[in-house]
Amino acid sequence: MAACSIEDVLAKVEQEEAEKLKSITVHKELDLELDAGNLLAVDKNRVDEREFKRAKKDEFLRALARDNTQLLLNEVWKHPTERVEDVIVVKLPEPSTPLPREKPVPKPKPPTKWEQFAKLKGIQKKKKTNLVWDEVHKEWRRRWGYKRAKDDTKEWLIEVPESADPNEDQFAKRNKAKKERVAKNEFNRLRNIARSQKLKVPGVGLAPAGRQSRSELAQAVGVAKVSTASVGKFQDRLPKEKAPKNAGKKRKFQPNIGDFAGEKQKQLDILKVLGSKKPRLDITRAVNKQMREEDMEAGAKARKGSGKKGRSSHMSGKGKGRKGPKGPKGKPRKQGKR
């Protein structure tokens, strides 16, 4: 074994460490165009084709990316820094390179009905504080949400108004009124969305409005009648009310329990049809179809023959304007059996 000096070992170790920790100084023929605001680096240097072909492509590209990233980081650390929660943060400048948007600029939302009314009346929106003083608990509380001020839902006692029924449940009445308010707000929200998308407003023609046409009233009445458990089967009609048009039929399903014999026979019939090689022929249906086709052909021939006869009589001038034998006063005569 060849003797190896300590100096050679140390030099080899230093060389390996230098390869692992490369210098932060990178030399380029042309300076990179750096945009620290966008963390963008543009390298316009020419790629050496010989070195690219001689070395491995992945290693060459990795080394090139490392050098350019090092130059970009050197530019980033030239800007002022600050410490935020034991982390050093760099204040990036404003970007100088305009980049295209990935998606188009969002269109402005159309104003809601309330915004249109506020603009017409000159109502300005005033920002309210989130905290208000609660006289009951003697502390500042949120205006809305959990543990809000003046929360009447936590009261265990409610005063009954003089005009109200003493036996009426005021707690249930309050809960019902709240559900109605929530439903009304949700309906208005959906109606605003539908109006902005130029779609049909949900429930149009069903809710009472100031002016309703005859068709809207008829639609509302029809929906109200079929909203029962029997789908309007036992609902009485007005004297001159017409039957609803396009009334859908209630679907019928086979029972899930019971009648196992009928279900078994039905499945056997399906398997028999699928397993048979000969096509299943419905003789009655085929005969009826043939008879209908023959009747249609005979009717077409009769209409064709009557059309020719009428044209010939019209051209000859006979029977012009005559529809049949008429009696006195232009009335058709009654003919008996021959």
Mean pLDDT: 79
* Broad structural category: mainly alpha
- Oligomeric state: single chain
Helix content: 40-55%
The helix/strand series, from N terminus to C terminus, equals HEEHHEEHEEHHHH
Which regions are unreliable across 5 or more consecutive residues at pLDDT < 50?
Answer: 310-325
* Backbone shape: extended
- Strand count, sense and closure of the main sheet? 2 strands, antiparallel
Order of strands, main sheet, comes to 1-2
Rg from Cα: 45 Å
Number of extended strands: 6
Distance between the termini: 141 Å
Into which percentage range does the β-strand content fall? 5-15%
- Number of H- or I-type helical stretches: 8
How would you describe this structure to a colleague?
- The protein has 338 residues and is mostly helical.
- Among the domains are: 8-90, no CATH class; 151-200.
- Helices cover 41% and strands 6% of the residues.
- It has eight helices and six strands; from the N terminus they run H-E-E-H-H-E-E-H-E-E-H-H-H-H.
- A hairpin with a 4-residue loop joins strand 1 and strand 2.
- It is extended.
- Mean pLDDT is 79; it is low at 310-325.
Topology (elements, then pairings):
Layout: H1 6-20, E1 33-35, E2 40-42, H2 49-54, H3 57-76, E3 81-83, E4 88-90, H4 113-121, E5 131-134, E6 139-142, H5 170-196, H6 214-225, H7 260-275, H8 283-316
Antiparallel strand pairs: 1-2, 3-4, 5-6
Characterize this entry briefly:
The protein has 338 residues and is mainly α.
